[in-house]
Write a structure and sequence with these properties.
The protein has two domains: 150 residues, Alpha Horseshoe (Serine Threonine Protein Phosphatase 5, Tetratricopeptide repeat); 241 residues, P-loop containing nucleotide triphosphate hydrolases (Rossmann fold, 3-Layer(aba) Sandwich), CATH 3.40.50. The chain is built from 25 helices and five strands. It starts with a helix and ends in a 7-residue tail after the last helix.
């Protein structure tokens, strides 16, 4: 018993050092414990935590596998293993590991939160929310856990519950910028009821000269822009967007030539579909973000035989894995060039299996159609048609200025390089031109009953007519439930998670006209690329 006490003291000290960011000392203590044979599973788990802090998921996986060989019921190790699988883009395995660990009834708040994060990021939002609730019940004052709960509840449509969780996060930590910006996203801000003063104060704290925090700046600045938009002051909103993005733009300068090469490589992947997997189930909704992709997804997935798997990255990940290219990016010129040698039937079959499995509550297993609404799949259209020749690909289109502006207005993940064009208005315009030319290429070479464009403005003007048209394209009869898409109770994880809970509105059509002269760099860039700008 005395030896056990020593083991616990040693590793408790290591855990305390890890919590304080003192990884070197913690690492030494864990190695010493292993050398003495003291609680080896726990020592390996703590080493995995250190590897996770250093963003080394392969090492985390190695260490947690060793820990679980010693102690299969170590739930902390199982949670970190699931997190590592997620970081390695092995989503299906990550979700399965998290579900298996959750079934063992974990009680530790950190384990519950970690498993919740994995389930949330793999689309199991209801299950994630349940775990976050259990974590916050143990620690109501843990701001990050409350924020995670709020995010999961927002995705499931429980906006009142999300508000309560965000407010609890702010009560625990008033400077929690993500909770504050998320709270702003839940409702329209007014002159009488807004968070502008709190947001501005936090933004100033996030912008010390000369070392700003780009992530905090983005969240707070975007929330301020949204607030001023709600109150009708669009020029001020635009100025806040510029301030919000300045730090990130300096940290990661964008070069349009990189995306130009990527789009050209994507266009070259289109060849006759002769050896794919003949399953008609998949419906791909592609396009630029914030151009109506979520609206179309909700409309179609309200049909009784269609389910949505959300925004899957699986097709790109499978192409990357099957080509075996060594580059660090999933979508890149090298991978597109190598894709010509793929076994397209195997690619299509594996993709369908994963897409069906990704639907929460198992609804994808028997559905006649399964939607994947990853916008970036617009780059994969040529490969999708070769792997799944019977799949339908629906590309959302929107007014060029509204399209580029909506991307500039969007807060994308700060560590996701594919949206770096959205940090500058002119870059957003040039990127739109690349997108426009690629879609014209797909339109010219793919069968019109497999690739079709859908205009956002047309959907807003004639929802029933466009819904009937699209359902005819995918080979299904019209169902009135599609017109009541706002009553759809399934989860939504996109920036439209609040809007799609309301009936259709037209206020986003022609939004760009409210911003005045501030959009001149965008207009100039579009015109320089030969893009016509309708009134």
């Amino acid at each position: 018993m005395a030896d056990l006490a020593i083991e616990n003291v040693t590793l408790r000290r290591a855990a305390t050092l890890i919590a304080g960011g003192e990884h070197r000392g913690a690492h030494a203590l864990c190695l010493a414990a292993l050398q003495k044979g003291e609680a080896p599973a726990q020592a390996l788990f703590l080493l995995a935590l250190i590897a996770a802090e250093h963003r080394n998921p392969s090492k985390v996986l190695e260490l947690t596998d060793k820990a679980l060989q010693i102690e299969s019921g170590h739930l902390g190790a199982r949670a970190q293993r699931a997190r590592a699988l997620l970081a390695l883009h092995r989503q299906a395995e990550a979700r399965a590991e998290a579900e298996a660990a959750a079934a063992l009834d974990p009680r530790d708040g950190h384990v519950l939160d970690t498993l919740g994060v994995v389930l949330s990021r793999t689309g199991a939002y209801q299950a994630a929310a349940a775990l976050f609730r259990r974590a916050t019940a143990r620690r109501p004052d843990h701001a990050d856990w409350q924020y995670n709960l709020g995010s999961a509840l927002q995705f499931t449509g429980d906006l009142a519950g999300a508000r309560t969780a965000y407010e609890a996060a702010l009560k625990a930590r008033p400077d929690h910028h993500r909770a504050l910006s998320s709270l702003v996203s839940l409702s329209r801000q007014t002159e009488a009821d807004n968070q502008v003063a709190a947001l501005e104060a936090l933004f100033d704290d996030a912008d010390p000269d000369p070392d700003p925090d780009p992530a905090r700046q983005q969240h707070l600045g975007h929330a301020l822009a949204k607030s001023f938009e709600d109150m009708g002051d669009h020029p001020t909103a635009l100025s806040w967007l510029e301030r919000a993005k300045a730090g990130r733009r300096r940290a990661a300068p964008y070069a349009i030539d990189r995306d130009k090469a990527l789009f050209e490589a994507a266009a070259a992947t289109a060849k006759p579909a002769t050896g794919g997997y003949d399953d008609p189930a998949p419906i791909f909704i592609v396009g630029l973000p914030r151009t109506g992709t979520t609206l179309l997804d909700r409309v179609l997935s309200s049909h009784p035989v269609i389910v949505s798997a959300g925004e899957l990255g699986d097709f790109s990940l499978l192409v990357k894995r099957m080509t075996g290219t060594p580059s660090s990016l999933v979508l890149d010129v090298e991978t597109f060039a190598a894709a010509d040698r793929l076994d397209f039937a195997a690619l299509g079959r594996t993709y369908v299996e994963r897409a069906r499995a990704a639907v929460e509550d198992g609804a994808g297993a028997t559905a006649a159609r399964v939607i994947d609404k990853m916008p970036l799949n617009v780059l994969n259209v040529g490969l999708i048609h070769r792997a799944l020749p019977n799949a339908r690909i629906l590309c959302l289109r929107r007014h060029p200025v509204d399209s580029a502006l909506s991307n500039y207005r969007q807060l994308f993940a700060t560590d996701f390089p594919y949206y770096d064009y959205a940090f500058d208005l002119a870059d957003a315009g040039r990127y739109y031109a690349l997108f426009d030319r690629l879609v014209a290429h797909w339109r010219a070479i793919l069968p019109p009953d497999r690739f079709a464009e859908v205009a956002y403005e047309d959907m807003v003007a004639d929802l029933e007519g466009q819904t009937r048209r699209v359902l005819d394209l995918v080979g299904l009869p019209f169902d009135p439930a599609c017109l009541a898409f706002h009553e759809n109770t399934s989860a939504v994880s996109t920036a439209s998670s609040v809007q799609v809970r309301s009936p259709l509105y037209s206020t986003s059509v022609g939004r760009w006209k409210r911003y005045g002269d501030g959009l001149q760099p965008l207009l100039d860039a579009l015109r320089a690329e030969g893009i016509d700008i309708p009134d």
